Amino acid sequence: MRNVILRVKERFVSISVIFVTAIFLTVFLLVEDELSFTVLMLVGGGLFYFVKRRDCFKEVIVFARQSRYGFLICIFLALLTVLIILRNEHFALFMIASVALYSTVCFGLTIQLGYAGLTNFAGAAFFGVGGYAIAVLSSENFPDILSVLTGGFMAALVGSVLILPILRTRGHYAALVTIAFALLFKTFLELNDTLGGPQGLKISSMNMFGWDFGKSFFGGSFYLNYVLFSLLVMVSIFTLTRLLEKSWIGLHWDALRIDEISSASFGINISSWKILAFTLGNFFIGLSGALYAKMLGHIAPTNFTFGDSLILISIVILGGIGNPWGVIPAAFLIIVLPEKLQFIQEYRLLLFALLVILVLLYRPDGLFKKALRSFYRGWGKV
Amino acid sequence: MGNSLLNSQGLTVKFGGLTALSDLNFSLEKGELLGLIGPNGSGKTTCFNTITGIYRQAAGTTSLLGKDITGFTPQQIYKCGITRTFQRLRLAVALSVFDNLLIGDSSSLNTNLFFNLFQRSKLKQEIEKKINKVKKIISVFNPALVDKLYEPVSKLSMIDRRRIEVCRALISDPKVLLLDEPSAGMTQEETRDFMNDLHEIKTKSPDLGIILIEHEMNVIESVTDRCIVLSYGKKISEGSFKDVSRNPSVRTAYLGED
Amino acid sequence: MLLGSLDQYLINGLVLGVIYAMVAVGFTLFFGVLNVIKFSHGDVLMAGAFAALIAYISLQNFVSISIWMMVVITTTFAFAAMALFGAIVARFLVLPLRGAPPLNTLLITLMLGLAVREAVRLFYPNGSNPKPFPKLLPDTDIFIFGLEIRHDSLIIIFGGLAAICFLHLLIKKTRLGLSIQAVAQDSETARLMGINFQKIVLGTFALGSGLAALAGVLNGLYYNEINFSMGLLLGVVGFSSAVVGGLGSILGAIIGGFLFALLQTIGAIWFEVPAYKDVFAFVVIIAVMAWRPTGLLAETKSDRV
Ligand SMILES: Nc1ncnc2c1ncn2[C@@H]1O[C@H](COP(=O)(O)OP(=O)(O)OP(=O)(O)O)[C@@H](O)[C@H]1O
Ligand SMILES: [Mg+2]
Questions:
Q1: What is the pTM (predicted TM-score) of this model?
Q2: Do C103 and A117 touch (CB under 8 A)?
């Protein structure tokens, strides 16, 4: 017991940074009028500066490295606090679930773009494939958990149609193939009457092993169901993504992304690794698309335009290409900020485009530079 | 002829109107160190690129230990046991030294998805084995590099990068090693060290056949068993360095018309 | 299921082919000198059309000039504005990323395209709706070889072809053109021979972007309507045409452009739903790309190793 108290004392700074961040984000999600929002941003900026000046972030990283379980418990408690405070706030909870699901999509894109170097500019289209798959299945009395998985499988399957031209063509023609697909996908949806045409489809709420997502969760908003499940999905897929990166598979992807010719000269089968990355990435994207559609309760072609694909790519670039850690804050910024600042809502695509251009020019590593691969904990320590 | 290690007959490569290699015949025996020399643009690198399946030949065949490997993909050729270094280094400078060396050993890695994701303790054992293997190889060239195993290649000096390239080609224990100007950019002293390292490699794996492209003639003189001279894609001379260097047409090729 | 007469399909296909070819030539030029793919190219075309529209509206209110003068002035303005824009983009967005992975150039131009599109939508008055483009060309019919052709279509086809030929001559005959060829062949050697690399790159980008602006104007003159998102599809079409022809070859780009228009025309005759013509054209083009990754014309070139 004394030991624990001592540890907590030692970690006081890190723990308070984590909790202050959590509280700040909570207030951020709650604030509605623009004046308070401005004040909040100023306070946040000040806090950030203060924390950064005293190198507290580094301490948090040290904390995470040295005692993983302590760190995870701390994050878990902080999250729990946030959710308890927000338990009745529909919109804030919806935002959290959206950030979780968009982050998951971007883990898929990270595998494709960041690991294997495959340019997929049809992210929103694969997201939509997952959504439409579940929309069709939920009118068929299919178990929901299987439909969510089917959403992922469908996205992977549709992606496999594109894989041949992507593999055959050199360089960044893959970009062209996916853009053409993204543009045609929307046309296809709008023309297809069985998929509801421009109006789209309605979707029943999620129900899994008797867990009814449409009902209030222990007295809180029904969105809590979705938040918890989305966070679960996000954490699982994040873990898978990181494990892939820290394995021989990640090594092969890095090698062929950086230099196809030298990889080929050392026996690496470029095509099969690209197929794996593309399929796996699309599976993750479709899976989150299915969940997102379930949460939204309806689905229409306007959610899956080329512009939406570009937003997804922006998140990946902003977070630091190939760094799944950076994706989460970047997704938060890109998803929540326009909702909070209504006056930028209209300008958001323009602002994001300019922001990404600046990032690519002056900080190509994004928010967080991707670290060297460490295969396991304690890697590189003698 | 049947038991020579590597054998090429009538190798011809064209780029549009340019014939970069024409009707090249050569063979490499087990344990031999063959020098490939010739002025700039004479087709030496093209020869390597063709043997390793990166360029496509217009005509000619190549065989390894009597097995025809003409038209194989680079991957297949690597698996047959031919590895190389590149004239303009092709390391992944953003990755660590360890990662780069392991790329050279990719076919020995277990890439099963389940194994990589969920059998992490077994994976860790495999990785630890690889660390030992890597350390053994690089300490032959430069023991100081062992401490830099976990650093990105971008932090290494040019010389060390070249060493890493050679190690990457050696780690899979190949039958044939193709070295494309490994000493470029090294001082004379460093070149000498490097050649000593080569000797060590040769004594350790006596069956390894090496083809060395090199502009430094004293290096060629001291290490090669035999030389081939190319000029404008044609073989103009072959034999020991002494014989070759006396050949008047070789002098003409190097010094110009007169 | 024919909605119009066959000659209408033919003329329409030719007009589209010329416009696509003009866009594709731009892609080919940029790729030639700098090995980059500029994804904002289609949006430059759109911006060029809007620049012409702005010029037209401002002139119309102040001076009374003949309609032909109007065509010349608006077109020149669009060309100049986009040429300048192209050079600026090359200088400040593309050249600084030369050392970075090629992916970054692709991403930055993709985002630039989005920015241009959004800027027009947001800042052009009522920009999210389609805008009428003035009918500056006579739309009376004439008969050639028994074909019924409108004057404006004819002018557009020949105007576009003339622009492409002019560009071709420029590249084959002038000093600037020779330097562009030299840089495209081998930029290192060209630099050693004293060619001002940056100047040539800027010049090429200006030229390609100006050509796209012309294509935008022609497109506007043909449909008498423009909108902020028209460049997206045109850009992708132009890029595919360039790739199918063989990136780097001007003749290939022209053939690619006409091929795409031909496919669309066949699609339009074949399918009842108009939107399927694009699906058809893209599917065929992508299949051709998968069949011949280096394009129909370009010789199979291996990267230098
Ligand atoms: N991918 C390619 N495309 C077109 N021409 C090429 C290509 N690769 C090589 N060449 C040409 O083939 C000829 C031989 O080049 P190669 O690189 O084999 O010469 P080299 O003997 O290695 O010269 P160096 O000593 O300078 O390395 C040169 O004229 C070169 O320009
Ligand atoms: Mg060479």
A1: 0.92
A2: yes
